[in-house]
Write a structure and sequence with these properties.
CATH class of the largest domain: Alpha Beta
Number of strands: 12
CATH architecture of the largest domain: 4-Layer Sandwich
Shape: elongated
Order of helices and strands: HHHEEHEEEHHEEEEEEHHHE
Strand order of the largest sheet: 3-12-11-8-9
Helix content: 40-55%
Distance between the termini: 71 Å
Largest sheet: 5 strands, antiparallel
Structural class: alpha+beta
CATH topology of the largest domain: Phosphatase 2c, domain 1
Number of domains: 2
CATH superfamily of the largest domain: PPM-type phosphatase domain
Length: 361
Amino acid sequence: MSFGWRVYQFLLGIGALSSYMFYRGAQSVDAFSAEQVLLVLPAAILLPILLLVWYRRGNHEASWLIFPILLSCMTLVLYDSGYAASLLGWKLPRYLTESLDIGLIPLQVWDLANLLFVPAIGVVILLRFTRASREQANAAAEFGAAREIQRSLVPPTLPAFPGYQIDAAYIPAAEVGGDLYQVIAKTDGSFLVVVGDVSGKGLNAAMSGAVAIGALRTLAAANLSPALLLEGLNRQTTAGGHPGFITCLCVEMHPDGWAVFANAGHLSPYRNGEELDCGASLPLGLVKDADYREARIRLFPGDKLTLLTDGVVEARNSQGELFGFERTVAISNQSAQHIAQTALAFGQDDDITVLKITFQS
C-alpha cells in the first residue's frame, strides 16, 4: 500500500471525527463544508479512474460502478462547493444549496445520484454471483473428470500369480492427486509391479498419470527389463511436455523368487520390515537421457515386499508432525490395509498407496 494512500486514509479518519464534531455543534458549517470538499474530491477523481483501470484489466463488473460513483461523489462536491460559495454571496442554482422536495420527501442532489448507485451495486452483486456459480460448476466438472481419470491409475482388481500373494490399499486424498500402481503379467511367466507418484494435484496430475499408464503398458508388452522400461517411460514422459515429474519404482518378480528393481526417485521398498537399498535415479520427466540401474534380490518362502508412496511417510497430524520414516519402518511388515489405515488415522495429507507382495513358494 502506497504512502499517499495511507495519508488519505488518515485524512478520511479525521473527516469522520470532523463530522462528529459538526453534529455535536463543535465545528462551524463553513469549516465542515470546506473539509468535506477537500476530502471527497480526490475520491471523486480517483475512484472512477481506478474502476476504469480494473475494467480494462478484465474486471467487467467495474464498468457498472464508474458512472454512479463519479456522479455520487461529484454531486456531493458540488453541494459542498455551492454551500461554500453561497457564504461568499455568490448566486448559484437552488439545487446546489437547498433540498428538492418531492412530495413530503426532501432530497439533496447527492440523494438522487445515490439512487443510481444502489441498483448498480445490485447488478455487480448479481454478476459476481453468476460468475462465481459458473466457476464453481466448472471446477466441479474438472474435479469429476480428474476423479474419473484417477480411477484408471489403479487396477480395479489384482491379477493372481502362482507362488505369490499381492495385496494393495489405495486411499485417495480429498483433493485429486496422482498416485498410480499397476501389476502387469509378462509372457515369460514373470510380472511387473509398478508404483508411482505424479507431482502436483488436480486434473493435470491425473492426466499425466493416465498418459504414463498408457506408455507403461505399451513398453511392458515389449518384455523390457525394469531399467529399460523406465528409460523408455522417461523418454515418453519428457517428450510429452507435461509439467512436473513422476517418481516410479518398477519391480520384476520371477516365479523362482528373484526380484529385479529399478528406481526413478521413488521411496525405497521394504523386505520383511527392513528398507532395501536398490539405488535411485532421477524421477521421470526431468532429464531425457537419464540412466536407470537395476538391483536384484532373492526372496525366500514367506518373505514380504512392501512398496508404498510418500502419502504414508508424509502423513501429518493436527500438530503438524510428520508420520516419518521411523514409524513407516516399524509398520512396514504389516498388511497393506493396516499400513494405509495407520497413516490415514495419523492424518492424511496426500494419496496413500501400499502394495504388499508375499512370496509363498
